[in-house]
Design a protein that fits this description.
The complex is a heterodimer of chains A (about 350) and B (about 525). Chain A has about 350 residues and is α/β, with parallel strands linked by helices. Chain A has helices spanning about 1-35, 40-50, 75-90, 105-110, 125-130, 175-185, 195-205, 215-225, 255-270, 280-285, 290-295, 310-320, 320-330, and strands at about 50-55, 60, 65, 70-75, 95-100, 115-120, 135, 140-145, 145-150, 165-170, 190-195, 210-215, 230-235, 240-245, 245-250. Chain A is built from 13 helices and 15 strands. Chain B has about 525 residues and is mainly α. Chain B has helices spanning about 10-15, 15-25, 30-40, 40-55, 60-70, 80-110, 115-145, 185-190, 200-230, 235-250, 255-270, 300-330, 335-355, 380-405, 410-420, 425-455, 465-475, 480-510; strands spanning about 275-280, 280-285, 290, 295, 360-365, 365-370, 375, 375-380. The chains are: A alpha/beta (about 350), B mainly alpha (about 525). The complex binds glutathione.
Chain lengths: ~350, ~525
């Protein structure tokens, strides 16, 4: 009896504490917090002094940590740099932090605000946009899922693969697509899930699976990393649409604008023929459209909440989209011409809304 | 004050209020209204009325009992938080009443609160509980306010979109579900148990986890006991090989060992199934072990009945022999009696099966297809690695526990046993092991718990255990919180079951004092 009583007493005091602290806390927040502190991701990043950019660091061409000199390179990495330059004016040793995330870590990391943006070959999908409460920026690379097999197997297409063992990465769209593609053909198959890209390519090399499947760009990057790339072929089949896009949390329009227009700036610069090499000449251009784009004259660009010359800072740091592509994607063997990733003026899908 | 208090100086300072209040009964009020209100039946009815009011009117009350206090719109308050607040409001009068009572006792006693040992204990408990609950509460609020992690428990009834290539097929109907008495029909209709749902995939993952854990538990115990005895062997080679084994496996990370087995050891085997090592109809390759599947036929029930009858009769004989031994002192020879009954009746069942309908079992052999074997049974590379890895790792710890247990039995006991004329085998079996087991079982339980939880490392070697399947769901739906709660609860239940089993064993081994 005494024990029960004592327990109840303890609980009572405790719970009233909890209730009380809550009330007090909330009242305080209302009066002091809300107005004084600016909200929003952009303010948060500026106050923090650096950007947390979520990348993979395992996929050559997109984001790769070079083990020899500890430098990051790739298309995704360059967009992290572009965003940093847009926010802070330049990229220094301290204002950009790369957070390396596996496919399965990336969304929890974003949701928990451990990264401000994901530039991590992430496919723009309906469920990620809705269910995962994410939002996507403009697609930076139009991709599709492919299949890589040892050349020695003599496989010509997916239709030869009934009964095969397939290595895949968990937490990706690719494990969904492959399940669907094989089930719809009525094929038997064994799916072996791995947590990261290196494990899956090692498993393919070791013969633990017959097929490795992921985005074609990823396959090309992984293939370029093995000792003898000629031992593996990427099949012509494309299983899906994989528009790889920057991803951030939904509900912050200003931050969405900043990320989106940073990407568009690289598209628009290419369309205007502005490169990191000729940017100084272009600043003297008489063309009023180019002047507006580069923030010469009216403080038009600062509407977004960044400095008026943020486009100039982006171009100085990473160049235009074409330069980014040539620097990172061409070396892993994916030509741009005639692909979806060409500028719209050359028949591709790379297109910026009007800059006015 | 009680008699013992003279022994300790602290008891002179601290007063045990329970004794005091017993000696000095509270003064009784004369006021009839107070007397009426103080009758338990009245108090309880008032309280019940209050609870009824809260429950019936909750939908309107919650606006100002919860939403206003939290200062956020009712629509934004999750079910969990709302339930907590409901509980708080229901309990509040009771708490106030208790605090009031406690304060009254404290006042009446006229001793300073810092000398009141019960009061101090209460305070300590309150502080501790406060820290724990406030911590949990802060965490929960943090998840809701500072992150954008969505929480939706209904993910478990969604369609699971990824192939699970191991364990029972989760896209098939569970045929025996509706045969369960009473609840069977309800279960068969339950949303979450329909073919292809996330719950079904999770169950498949759970079965895979259990398949690996149970096998590894058995093997690691057998291997561990052998090596543990080896550690105490008189043979130099056996002793040192055992010691080296223990040191190696105990001092390297399990994850490393799993990688070593998966990539290194299995890497030595031929990887292409067509080059697999062949032992009869068993095929071993880097992708796993393929072996004949045992199928039961129509005559199988006869055999099963024989086995069950054998088991029942065998156990009955076993117990009878023990009683005979107790009463007459004749050797029990339980094993001989048991196995005679078991195998005898089993054989009769087998003969019966053959006579009535031919062989009770059929084998389905694996055959080579273009990429893999088809038909038969299969233990994948991931499964083999996990079982072998967990076994080798845990056996090292078990060995050391067994060694310590055996060494803890004093040598005098062994000498006394030998002086009574017991053989060395009997000494081990009847004197040393029963005592050693008492020391072995508790730490062994810890190892078993470690093993069951370490099985979640399977995700690194591509094996579809529970954790792996849950990770897939979590990734595809973003429901990290829901899935992690499910995972934690499931592993908790597994651990509790293991603990329960080991506690039962432990209790049966304790000294029986009469
Ligand atoms: N685009 C797909 C797949 C993305 C993906 O994870 N790709 C792999 C291979 S290209 C990768 O980045 N792996 C690197 C890692 O695991 O760190 C998705 O968004 O789900």
């Amino acid at each position: 009896m005494r024990r029960t009583f004592r327990f109840v007493l303890a609980l009572a005091v405790l719970l009233s504490f909890v209730a009380l602290s809550h009330v007090v806390n909330d009242r305080n927040e209302k009066s002091a917090f809300a107005q004084a502190e600016p909200t929003g991701k952009l303010a948060e990043v500026l106050a923090r002094g650096y950007l947390n950019c979520g990348i993979s660091a395992e996929v050559p061409g997109f984001s790769y940590l070079n083990p020899n000199d500890n430098t990051y390179s790739g298309l995704d990495v360059d967009f992290c740099r572009a965003l940093t330059a847009a926010i802070f004016g330049e990229v220094t040793d301290t204002n950009l932090v790369f957070v390396s995330l596996s496919s399965s870590e990336r969304f929890p990391a974003l949701q928990a605000n451990q990264v401000d943006v994901l530039m991590r070959n992430t496919t723009w999908t309906f469920s990620r946009d809705t269910d995962l409460k994410g939002s996507f920026g403009p697609t930076t690379f139009y991709d599709g899922q492919g299949l890589m097999v040892p050349a020695s197997l003599g496989v010509a297409s997916i239709d030869d693969l009934n009964g095969a063992s397939i290595c895949v990465q968990t937490g990706t769209t690719t494990e969904l697509n492959i399940t669907e593609a094989f089930n719809s053909r009525g094929f038997d198959f064994e799916l072996i899930p791995f947590d990261d890209a290196p494990s899956s390519i090692i498993a393919l090399e070791a013969g633990q699976c017959d097929v490795l499947t992921t985005d074609k760009s990823g396959l090309a990057g992984l293939r370029s990393g093995v000792a003898d790339p000629s031992l593996y072929v990427i099949l012509p089949d494309t299983l899906s649409k994989e528009p790889l896009s920057p991803m951030y949390n939904e509900g912050d329009d200003q931050w969405a604008n900043v990320v989106d227009w940073t990407v568009y700036a690289t598209f628009q610069a290419e369309e205007y023929g502005i490169t990191s090499a000729n940017i100084d000449e272009m600043l003297a251009s008489e063309d009023s459209a180019i002047q507006r784009f580069l923030g010469v004259g009216d403080p038009f660009n600062s509407l977004i909440g960044l400095s008026n010359d943020f486009t100039v800072n982006i171009i100085r740091t990473v160049g235009n989209y074409g330069e980014i592509y040539d620097r990172n994607i061409v070396p892993i063997g994916i030509p741009r011409e005639g692909s979806l990733n060409a500028l719209w003026t050359s028949g591709g899908l790379i297109y910026s809304p009007a800059w006015r | 004050m009680t008699a013992q208090s003279t022994y300790s100086s602290s008891d002179d300072f601290f007063v045990n209020t329970a004794d005091l209040s017993a000696r000095r009964p509270p003064p009784r009020s004369k006021n009839p209204v107070v007397l009426f209100l103080k009758r338990p039946i009245v108090l309880i009815s008032l309280y019940l009325a209050y609870i009824a009011l809260i429950f019936v009117k909750w939908d309107t009350l919650k606006d100002w009992l919860v939403a206003d206090i939290l200062n956020r719109p009712a629509s934004e308050i999750g079910n969990g938080l709302e339930a907590m607040w409901l509980a708080l409001w229901v309990a509040l009068p009771y708490f106030i009443f208790s605090i009031f009572n406690a304060a009254k006792i404290q006042l009446r006693l006229r001793i300073p609160f810092f000398r009141n040992i019960d009061f101090l204990r209460d305070i300590a408990q309150v502080v501790f509980l406060f820290v724990v609950v406030a911590g949990l509460y802060t965490l929960a609020l943090n998840v809701m306010d500072n992150t954008q992690i969505p929480i939706n428990w209904n993910v478990v009834s969604r369609h699971f979109p990824v192939e699970v290539s191991e364990g029972p097929d989760f896209t098939k109907e569970i045929s025996w579900l509706k045969d369960i008495p009473i609840i069977g029909n309800r279960l068969a209709k339950a949303d979450v148990l329909q073919p292809g749902t996330t719950t079904r995939a999770l169950i498949t993952g759970l079965i895979n986890t259990l398949r690996a854990v149970i096998l590894a538990l058995v093997f690691s115990t057998i291997l561990g006991v052998l090596i543990g005895i080896g550690l105490l062997s008189n043979n130099w080679l056996v002793r040192n090989v055992s010691a080296v084994y223990v040191e190696i496996f105990r001092n390297t990370p399990l994850l490393l060992q799993l990688f070593f087995i998966y990539r290194g050891v299995l890497g030595i085997l031929p990887t292409a199934p067509k080059d697999a090592y062949k032992f009869g109809n068993f095929y071993l390759s880097g992708r796993g072990l393929n072996f004949p599947k045992v199928l039961t036929t129509d005559s199988y029930p006869y055999f099963l009945m024989g086995i069950i009858a054998g088991l029942i009769v065998g156990i009955a004989l076993w117990r009878w022999r023990l009683r005979v031994q107790d009463e007459t002192g004749k050797p029990a020879n339980t094993l001989i009696w048991f196995s005679t009954a078991f195998f005898g009746l089993g054989a009769i069942g087998l003969v019966l099966a053959f006579v009535t309908g031919g062989t009770p079992f059929e084998l389905e052999n694996p055959t080579l297809d273009r990429f893999n074997f088809v038909g038969g049974s299969r233990w994948s590379a991931g499964y083999l690695t996990l079982v072998v890895g967990l076994t080798l790792f845990t056996a090292a710890f078990v060995a050391d526990i067994v060694r310590a247990g055996i060494q803890s039995v004093s040598h005098g006991q062994i000498e006394a046993a030998r002086a009574h004329g017991l053989t060395s085998n009997q000494t081990l079996r009847l004197v040393v092991l029963p005592q050693a087991m008492r020391l072995i079982v508790p730490p062994l339980t810890n190892q078993y718990l470690n093993l069951s939880k370490a099985s979640s490392l399977a995700i690194s070697i591509g094996f579809y255990d529970l954790f792996n399947v849950a990770t897939i769901v979590q990734n595809q739906t973003g429901q990290a919180v829901a899935l992690f709660v499910i995972l934690m609860l499931t592993y908790l239940v597994i651990s509790l079951l293991i603990s329960l089993l080991m506690n039962i064993i432990n209790r049966s081994l304790q000294l029986k004092t009469r």
